[in-house]
Specification:
With about 450 residues, this protein is of the alpha/beta class. The chain has a single domain, classed as TIM Barrel. About 30% of the residues lie in helices and about 20% in strands. The protein is built from twelve helices and 18 strands. Strands 1, 2, 3, 4, 5, 15, 16, 17 and 18 form a nine-stranded mixed β-sheet that branches. Strands 9-10-11-12-13-14 form a six-stranded parallel β-sheet. The longest helix is centred in the middle third of the chain and has 18 residues. It is globular and about 75 Å long. It starts with a strand and ends in a 12-residue tail after the last strand.
């Protein structure tokens, strides 16, 4: 049956306005005025709540198959649905086997069957020596590839150097699939580590960990990636930018037309190094959370369009791997768990800075959908797109409690955060998946295969 979803505030590519969104089967077929919907449609009136496009998070670690005790398709996708996210793109390294060839991709597809509450895709992996596997992964439908320029923390996902990247980019040239890169190089990190060892610094202090991942590691890596993107004319995407010191390089590359895009994470826009307690390893991530001035520079770059999107880099682990009892940053697994929270976290920060709600549609939906080859189908309220929506109350105020976390392990630095804005409902392809704090129906997420 045709549905008409009405709200006084519908976020379309043209902005926020009163509208009725007409849905037939799983797709949006039309946008029309409040009172212009077909008379025989089933009307759903959301009043003054904002109807957002279903969000797309193009950087998550689902960890299944192989490390389902860390996370998994069921819990990750439920957490996503609770926060208005209707499409996830999984990173290729924390599962076993790592997604670096077609058999591993097929293992992931099998593991997802019947478990996904939202739609999903997965990046392929670029590791040392697998350049010849990349064309077959591309033909199998991955939307692009991910690599590390520094040790990934996973032995089966080896980092790459300039020669490895050159071999991979030769294979990828011409197909316009993006190469996503963890942009830190080892040299500055190794030098910083030697300095820390010589000074015998306390690894329970956040300042020690902060100094172990210097800005130069990002700056040098991004300089290399820009040069390669220009040489091979292949799109390169910088994941989880943390250092504002790299922004001048990126601005110059943009002005020269180099095919480089950039994301940052909600946690880099929310937390600051000054406020992180010693021993609080739930805040550990790489690159690290930097100081308040750096945070504000990232906000400025986001507003200017130099940074195109905001994602979570949701990277959970079992509690014991966080080493919270000893609080040593060098021993703890790095990664921040946040699926389901990014929208209110970002909106709270925007509200405090006087930024209107409209950019969320680009930053958290349209831009990551474009990166993953889903433009026009995901991340937008427009005819022809999937009928994916988040019903959002931007005025709601609440404090994050463990009961609000739907990922597997209830560990997050956002616990206790006072937020503005809350997702009331999430719709996937024309039907509700989450409503009033409960999951609706059954898991019916599908893989989004790039043609």
């Amino acid at each position: 049956m045709t549905k008409a979803l009405r709200s006084t505030r519908v976020l379309t590519p043209e902005g926020i306005a009163p509208a009725a969104v007409i849905v037939d089967h799983e797709q949006i077929t039309a946008l029309c005025g409040w009172n212009e919907a077909p008379a025989d449609a089933e009307f759903l009136d959301f009043g003054d709540h904002v109807l957002l496009p279903g969000l797309v998070d193009s950087h998550v670690h689902i960890n299944e198959p192989g490390r389902t005790e860390w996370e998994g398709f069921e819990t990750a996708t439920q957490a996503a649905a609770s926060g208005g996210v209707t499409t996830l793109v999984d990173m290729p390294l924390n599962c076993i086997p790592e997604t670096i060839d077609v058999p591993a991709l097929e293992a992931k597809r099998a593991a997802a069957q019947g478990k996904a509450w939202v739609d999903w895709a997965t990046w392929g992996g670029v590791v040392r020596g697998n350049a010849d596997s990349l064309p077959s992964l591309a033909r199998a439908g991955v939307p692009g590839f991910k690599c590390f320029l520094i040790h990934s923390g996973i032995e089966g996902f080896a980092s790459v150097d300039e020669a490895d990247l050159g071999a991979a980019l030769k294979k990828l040239r011409g197909n316009w699939l993006p190469l996503l890169a963890h942009a830190e190089v080892a040299g500055p990190v190794e030098i910083a580590g030697e300095a820390i060892a010589g000074a015998d610094l306390d690894w329970r202090q956040y300042s020690t960990y902060f100094s172990s991942r210097p800005d130069l590691a990002e700056v040098f890596a991004i300089d290399l990636l820009i040069r390669l993107a220009e040489e091979f004319q292949t799109p390169i995407h910088i994941v989880h930018l943390s250092s504002a010191q790299a922004l001048p390089l990126l601005r110059d590359a943009r002005e020269r037309g180099v095919p480089v895009t950039v994301e940052t994470c909600a946690h880099y826009l929310w937390f600051t190094a000054e406020e992180i307690p010693d021993g609080a390893t739930e805040y550990k991530c790489a690159p690290p959370i930097r100081d308040a001035a750096n945070r504000e520079a990232l906000w400025t770059a986001l507003n200017e369009g130099l940074i195109q999107m905001v994602i979570t880099d949701h990277s959970p682990c079992p509690p014991e791997l966080k080493q919270r009892d000893v609080g040593r940053w060098d021993l703890a697994w790095g990664g921040i768990a946040s699926l389901g929270l990014a929208l209110p976290v970002l909106w709270t920060g925007m509200y405090k800075r006087g930024i209107t709600l409209e950019p969320i549609g680009e930053w958290m939906a349209a831009a990551p959908a474009k990166l993953a080859g889903m433009s026009g189908r995901k991340g937008v309220i427009a005819p022809g797109a999937d009928a994916d929506f988040a019903v959002f109350d931007p005025e709601a105020k609440w404090t994050v409690a463990p009961s609000d976390l739907h990922f597997r392990h209830k560990i997050s630095p956002y616990l206790g955060a006072e937020l503005r804005g809350r997702v009331l409902e999430t719709w996937l392809r024309g039907e509700p998946a989450f409503r009033a704090g409960e999951f609706v129906g059954q898991a019916r997420g599908r893989e989004q295969v790039r043609g």
